[in-house]
Structure formats: C-alpha cells, structure tokens
Amino acid sequence: MSRPPDLPSLQLLVLVADRESLTAAAEEAGMSQPAASKRMTALERRLGVRLLDRSRRGSTLTAAGELVTGWARRVLDELNVLVEGVEVLRQESEAHLRIAASLTVAEHLLPAWLGELRRAEPDLRVGLQVMNSTRVCDLVRDRAVELGFIESPGPLRGLRSREVGRDRLVLAVAPTHPWARRRRPIDVAQLAGTPLISREAGSGTRETVELAVAAHGERLVRPLLELGSSAAIRSAALAGAGPALLSELVVAPDVATRALVEVPIAGIDLSRRLRAVWHAGTSPAGSAAALIGHALVSRAGRGRARGPAR
C-alpha cells in the first residue's frame, strides 16, 4: 500500500457496516449509490483486499472487511479526539478569563454577574467550567482557572477567599409526604437518621449538611438517592421520591407555590457562605477582580431587597 486510505472512504466503510447496506450508507453520506460503490472499489484497490461481497441482495462485509472496519473505527475515534481536543485548546486560548463555579452559583447567580461584567467589557471572552466545590478548588490550586466560586464551608488549603453571598439549605418534601403535615420541626437526630435525596460527596451542599450534623454528634445515614445536580434532586423531590435538602435559591419558587413544602429543623444552622476563591500566591486583578466586584454589588442589592436583618 503506497499511501494510507482517505478518511471519507473509511467513514463510508463504517457506514456500510452500520447500515448493513451500501445504498443506505450512500444515502446517509449524501452521495449516489454508484459513486459510493466506486469509492469502495477504489478503497479495496488501495488496500489490496476485498472488503465487500456484492450480490443482487446487496453488499455485505467480508471477513477482511470486518477487520478493516474495526481499525477504521479506531482511526475515526482518534480523529474525533484530536478535533475535540484542539477545540478545547482553541477555546481556552481565546478565553481571557478562566473561571470555575459550583452548580448552585453557576445556575442561579453567576449569569447575572457575568452579564454585568460583559456590559462593562463587551470584548471579554470567559471560559467557565461547572462542577462541585471540591473540583473547583482543585482547579484553582492547579492554576487551571484564575477564579472559582464555591459553596462548601470547609478550610481552603492553598487558597484565599472572599465571601460574595449567603445561602441557606432548605429541607423540602412533596405535599404528599408525611412531614408536610407536621406541626413541629424535626430535630437533628431525625434529620441525620433519615435517608435523603442528596448531592454527591465533594459537593458544597453535602459538606454543609455533614458538618452541621457532626457538630451535634450525629452522622448522616446513607442517602436515599445520590444525584449529581440540584435540578435532578428538585425533580426527584417534586415527584415524591423523598425529602431533600436544597439551596433556598433553587427551591424558593416551589415553596412559594406549595409544589414543595419546607420542613423546619430545630437546633441546626444550615446557612452557608458563598465564596470566591483564588490561588494563595496571587491576587485577583483585571477582569477577575471586576467579576468579584459585580458579585459584591449584586449581594448588596439582594440585601436591600430583603430589608434589614432581624
């Protein structure tokens, strides 16, 4: 074989295998059946092996064709990895500000902050990664991002931080749940001993609850469901799957409409600080400092909207 086969021919071969028909493969590739047949014949000549058994009933892969198709899939998969990897590199090189944020912050607060930042800096490009608080801190420590936003209460090794907001976890159940009709709050022992719909370990929500119950000598039992996003937990709670602890930012509209019922908890503080974090060896500057500024202005506005603290 003097030179390697061309990629369109390999793609067509894989389509023939997937569709079990040269005609169907040609149609999906946007070419005529004679043109597809000619391309397959040229590929066979270049490789020096027969790939297809042709008959009036159609074209099927030979044993050699099956092997070549498997190798072709690997080549095409690696090509996709290359293309996707280059796209990530391109986006990162274009992003003037690289940030990461926990799910709650990313879904409910960050869009407004970024909107204000973009109005002030219309040419700014932002690269955002959304993940749990532990992974956000890891990226900031590794200097993969300039700035992170987290909701976890734990210590921040190798990082510095500034509070940019406050949040509270709400215990919510569907109206059909027995707790929805309780007249008294549940206590910490009941909370810890009840399987909850929960976020994964490493999330700020999970860590906040674990530390709060541990302060009372309790430990959470195994979750009823462990889900990767607040939206999924909310949906499960709305469906009546069980009690869930959710950010007030997430659940407030449902509580207001009685789609979910807030269950009071006695003797425990489930409020939490939302923090901007950056590497201990740096200080926020430029667009990163401006983004923190917009978050602080937004926080002050929310405080005025709620009225004076009591």
TrEMBL record:
UniProt superkingdom: Bacteria
Keyword Transcription regulation: yes
Keyword Hydrolase in record: no
Assigned keywords, A-Z: DNA-binding, Transcription, Transcription regulation
Domain HTH lysR-type as annotated: residue spans: 5-62
GO molecular function: DNA-binding transcription factor activity; transcription cis-regulatory region binding
Pfam families listed in its UniProt record: HTH_1 (PF00126), LysR_substrate (PF03466)
InterPro entries: LysR_HTH_N, LysR_subst-bd, WH-like_DNA-bd_sf, WH_DNA-bd_sf
Family assignment from sequence similarity: Belongs to the LysR transcriptional regulatory family.
Name of the protein in question: DNA-binding transcriptional LysR family regulator
Species assigned in the record: Pseudonocardia kunmingensis
